[in-house]
Amino acid sequence: PKSMSTIRMKKMKADGVPISVITAYDYPSAKLAEEAGVDVILVGDSLGNVVQGQQSTLPVTLDEMIYHTKMVTRAVTAPFVVGDMPFMTYHGSLDQTLRNIGRLMREGLCKAVKMEGGAEIAHTVEASVQAGVPVMGHIGLTPQSVYQIGGYRVQGKTNEQARKLLDDAKALEQAGAFAIVLELTTDELSEQITKQLSIPTIGIGAGPHCDGQVLVFHDLLQYASPVFPKKFVKAYANIGDAIRTGIAAYVKDVKTRSFPTQEHAFHADLDMSGPLYG
Ligand code: KIV
Ligand code: NA
Questions:
Q1: pLDDT computed for residue 65 by the predictor
Q2: Which segment of the chain is annotated as a signal peptide (predicted)?
């Protein structure tokens, strides 16, 4: 299949063709996502939660993002791979920010980066785009600011909040972002932002009106049981159960000496009762 690009994504929006996005963090998950026909793979800093077992995305480092992004880009050809800029790696000087973005792009080999924030990071988005780096925006519930927001809660429920988020979306479009993730924004606000922008919106917990949808790999496949059930997630498989059942069968076989059997063993025609082995 043809490689996904920012131009194709914009055309998909114009044509009303939904964009499918999933997160992936390593070689096998990315390979399977490509084989399943996904358009875009996001190497999200959600790996802090679902891969590293941390309470938030804040501890994830640039080196860790590079490590995971490398594994994903090694695995795929057609999907467009976006790497997440981790907490506080794009808020210092523009110089340092561009150096960090450069590392993720050059070492991780992704085709774009994602940054959380609205109008307040528009100048950063603009500088990145001017340097030739496609930027995906991310507004609404931005997990890197969870302690400022005060929790994982739906965004845009007041006129003031909704107006601000609409302005943020426009500022990001103006700054040159090629798409914007809307996380936990109300259905009404997601629809309005999607209508008013020419670049695609990618929703997560943002209702059905976005131009595309993104879900976390481990959530949609039930890889590990979530800490709390999320209303916006739909489970499409239960690979957690499949893995647990498989491992339990292996453990049982080992304990009962049912595995391995002679069919898994190797042989050599040697006389091991001779003096050499005495
Ligand atoms: O890190 C992540 O997985 C994300 C998506 C949920 C948008 O930022
Ligand atoms: Na993220």
A1: 98
A2: none
Contact 62, 84 (CB under 8 A): no
- Ligand 1 nearest-atom number relative to CA 214: 7
Q: 95 CA to middle of ligand 2, Å?
A: 22
Q: What pLDDT digit, counting tens, does each position of 46-76 carry? A: 999 999 999 999 999 999 999 999 999 999 9
As to burial, measured by CB atoms within 10 angstroms (0-12 exposed, 13-18 middle, 19+ buried), residue 124 is: buried
Which CATH architecture is the domain 6-238 placed in? Alpha-Beta Barrel (3.20)
Instruction: Check whether 226 has a pLDDT greater than 70.
Output: no
Q: Which of 34, 126, 173, 183 is catalytic?
A: 183
CA distances from 204 to 3, 31, 91, 232 (A): 24, 22, 24, 7
Active site residue 183: yes
What is the CA angle 18-24-30, rounded to 5?
90
For residue 268, CA distances in Å to 245, 260, 261, 262 come to 35, 18, 16, 13
Identify the DSSP state of 143.
G
Residue having the nearest C-alpha atom to atom 4 of ligand 1: 44
Counting from 1 in the atom list of ligand 1, the atom nearest the Cα of 181 is: 7
- Whether the full predicted model's pTM is greater than 0.90, yes or no, is yes
Residue 114 labelled as part of a binding site: yes
Residue nearest to ligand 1 atom 5, measured at CA: 44
The residues spanned by each domain of the chain are 6-238, 242-277
Instruction: List residues, by chain if needed, whose CB lies under 5 Å from ion ligand 2.
Output: 44-45, 84
ipTM over cut 0.85: yes
